[in-house]
Amino acid sequence: MPHISSAELKSNYDVIVVGSGAGGGQTAYTLAMEGVKVLMLEAGRNYDPMAETPMFQDNSRAPLRGAGTTDKPFGFYDATVDGGWQVPGEPYTQASNEPGRQFEWWRARMLGGRTNHWGRISLRNGPYDFKPYSRDGLGFDWPMTYEDLAPYYDRVEMLIGVYGDNDGLENTPNSSPGVLQPPPKARAGELYTQRHAKKLGLPVIAIHRAVLSMRQDSRTLPAKLHPNNPTAQRILAQAMNERAACFWATACGRGCSIKANYQSTTVHLPPALASGNLDILSDAMVREVTMDDAGKATGVAFIERKSRREMRVKARIVVLSASACETVRVLLNSKSARYPAGVANSSGKVGKYIMDTVGARLSGQIPALENLPPHNEDGAGGGHVYVPWWLYQEQHAGKLGFARGYHIEFGSGRQMPGVGTMSGLDWLNGGNYGKAYKQDARRYYGSFLGFAGRGEMIPNEDSFCEIDPTVKDKWGIPVLRFHWKWSEHETRQAAHMQQTFADLISALGGRVRQAPQKDGAKAIEPGGSIIHEVGGAIMGTNPRNSVTNQWCQTWDVKNLFLTDGAPFCSNADKNPTLTIMALAWRAADYMLEEMRKGNL
Amino acid sequence: MNPLPSSDRLDRRAALKWMLAGTATLMVLDRDSLAQGASAPGGRGYGTDPDLIKEYKPGDYWPLTLNDHQRRTAAVLCALIIPADDRSPSAADLKVHDFIDEWISAPYAGHDKDRARILDGLAWLDAEAGRRFGKKFIEANAGQQTAICDDLCREVPARAELKEPSLFFKRFRDLTAGGFYTTPEGMKDIQYVGNVPLLTFDGPPPEVLKQLGLA
To answer: Are A309 and A303 contacting, i.e. CB atoms less than 8 angstroms apart?
Structure first.
């Protein structure tokens, strides 16, 4: 079973998975490897990272030297196809024009979705992160513990390949022995920060990223991941053998044609396709879940983008993994006389509690890093170290004025120059040109350090989405309208980030170009800009105030599951992708068990 | 999408029309329309699904702006800002002025502001050279050109009336550097030595650690 056209659709599948990113990829992988017949529907076009990834292209070959535009917000060579905060012909609307009240919604219309370009940062939620309400009385507890999900974190990390260390720090879990790959050595600026951040009590440790620092052990890992399933083991071993280790060049955001980092299209989908149990139909824009009179899902209705025809396909189980807000949109648009508020929405909570990550950044120039002997700092195409949240106890004691923490990501070093690499040198040299300018460029190149905070947002009643009553997209599908509001927990956290980064730059003997922003409402990046969209169909223990149970199964429709970020009921500072995959694997295992028992 | 012919340049009048139309368009369009590439008459962007493998050059996607005289002026200024030395050629040698032309001609939000600033600035250079030396900027001798640049290059302009021309110079300098240091020659100049496959990543060499006091 392969990539198919709509003419090749079968009349019935075991499971339809809507979406092909981290959640959809993991769900389809787990099910297909266990013999379930899966149809994956992707709204965007098919995408082949082997043929389409710009490896080694330097910016001189790109339009505008590769700078970002509205067509390619992260730069020309970013892997994203037909995506961004705006997608042509597929608008969304905002309920408010007030500053700070908008949510900017990133989408990628391509096979593999955002996993093709993501930062590959793969941090586990810790024990506190599953019980935030119990810890400080805010937000919601998850209907599971860290221990419930830990085995799935191990499995995902073994499958996709994650480098990092086990440092045993508070609420920053270790992986099981033998799971992580060795982290790459830290770069000069990262090591220099590690040394001097100690004065401020900041721990600088190896970050965890989904990049192979060595080839995967295809002899032992498949048996650990698929015990008692020799077929799956054989297929996975083959897939692992087709992945190379990182060759320490080419930024991960471009995607990776040697399959050294994780993207759904290079890691989840090839073995799932090789199992013979997965059909993938691209250019299929799902509009709604179809229902029978007994309240069960029968399949989905979708628009075939090329012909603009509406089509339907059936399955025993429907899984939405379309990205949190797109999943919400499908649920709310699945409206009928029987389900006037959309399906799985008896609680009225579908669309509520949309979250992003709190973001703020500050950069500085570090004289100690000037004129370093030239050396290659490309590394793993992203950060090698980070600072996990370090003030759990002070925060818990109420000393900080905001309830949840953040981690710090680094940008440093002698990276491949872009259009802005030498911008604004007059800040440092007072302004010159000619041969002196060239000398200065040599001196300052590589001496800049940037710090980005990534913090937890607490779900609130003012951040949600709903169907816009009048606006439709080019497929005729009603669009989302967003409501957004940060609380002081987030804005104060953003101001704290700014001050911390300024202190850190001072501790490194550096200088900041602009003073840290003390007004949190100005320091915080707009909602949606960190692209950690989660929530909107939160999981819980009670059908009256949540949409799914801990298995991502909707309370109202037992053969309908949501395996993207939608069921998140909190959004820890840890980047959500790894947790999306762990939840999806766990949900897929539950589906397998329920199918075996005849319950689904 | 079909790339536009590379030789398709706009004259000054067309460029001005374009600027005005672009400004007016920006005022009435919302972000949705901008994302659809509707912001610039006369040229479309590369779209949301361009071929990432092929090699591009200025003019492949949208018509360029500078006429011959403007282009020569831009080249002279590029060479003044980044001249040739024993390590690398000048920005003009590497045709960075064509990149700047591409940049100011791009149909994306923000580029219209650079277009206005650069075109006004190039015209100002001629006016200033005419006032001081009785000739166009490119006809002035090196000492005269340098005298004008010396007035513009400071972070804080020497005189209030130089504020706008200094902002032009600052922007032009940043674009020149952006164009120059992204070329293979420019990357070599600042000793960017990456973008090559390695078997192992060994971290900073001992001499780097020593210089940082981390050895």
So the answer is: yes
In order, the DSSP letters of A410-465 are EEESSPPP-TTTTTTTHHHHSS--THHHHHHHHHHTT-EEEEEEEE-B---TT-EE
Question: Token pair of A55, please?
Answer: 């490896």
A247 chain-B contacts, CB cut-off 8 A? 197-199
For chain A, 600 residues long, the average pLDDT of each consecutive 10-residue run is 91 96 98 98 98 96 97 97 96 96 97 98 98 98 98 98 98 98 98 97 98 98 97 98 98 97 98 98 98 97 97 98 98 95 98 98 97 96 96 97 97 93 94 98 97 98 98 98 98 98 98 95 97 98 98 98 98 98 98 97
Q: Enter the tokens of residue B61.
A: 């996607």
Q: Say how far apart CA A179 and CA A163 lie, in whole Å.
A: 9
Q: Does A370 touch chain B (CB under 8 A)?
A: no
Give A381→chain B minimum CA distance, Å. 10
Burial (CB < 10 A; 0-12, 13-18, 19+), residue A597, is exposed
Touching check for B35 and chain A: CB below 8 Å? yes
* Joined tokens for residue B143: 């000492």
Evaluated on CA atoms A25, A29, A30, A31, the torsion sign reads: positive
The pLDDT tens digits for B2-37 are: 333 333 333 333 333 333 333 333 332 333 333 333
Rounded to the nearest 10 degrees, the angle between the axes of helix B163-180 and helix B111-133 is 120
Which residues of A are less than 8 Å from B186 in CB distance? 417
User: Are β-strands A278-281 and A12-18 bridged in parallel, bridged antiparallel, or unpaired?
Assistant: unpaired
A417 touches B: beta carbon within 8 Å: yes
Q: Chain B 112-151, CB below 8 Å of chain A: which residues?
A: 146, 149
Angle between helices B163-180 and B68-81 (to 10 degrees): 80
B95 close to A (CB below 8 A): no
Q: Please tell me if residue A291 touches chain B, with a CB cutoff of 8 Å.
A: no
A183: which 2 tokens? 């982290």
- Per CB-CB distance under 8 Å, the chain A contacts of B187 are 58, 416-417
Phi, psi at A542, each rounded to 5°: -130, 120
CB pairs under 8 A between A and B: 234
Tell me which residue has tokens 């009256």: A544
Q: Work out the angle between the directed axes of helices B142-152 and B111-133 (0-180°, nearest 10).
A: 130
In this structure, are residues B181 and B99 in contact, taking their beta carbons and an 8 Å threshold? no
Contact B192 A414 (CB under 8 A): yes
List the structure tokens of B100.
């700047």
- The shortest CB-CB distance from A191 to any of B102, B179, B204 is to B204
The domains located in chain A, with CATH, are: 1-53+79-164+256-357+462-482+533-600 (3.50.50.60)
Q: Is residue A312 helix, strand or coil?
A: strand
- Interatomic CA distance for residues A178 and A162, integer angstroms: 11
Are the beta carbons of B195 and A71 separated by less than 8 Å? Answer: no
User: Taking CB atoms and an 8 Å cutoff, what residues of chain A touch B147?
Assistant: none
Q: Cβ separation of A438 and B82 shorter than 8 Å?
A: yes
Q: Is A489 in the B-facing interface, judged by CB distances under 8 Å?
A: no
DSSP code of residue B77: H
pLDDT for the residue numbered B43: 61
| Residue whose token pair is 């300018």 | A437
Query: Is B163 a residue whose pLDDT tops 60?
Result: yes
Give the DSSP per-residue string, B139-167.
GS-HHHHHHHHHHH-SSS-SSGGGHHHHH
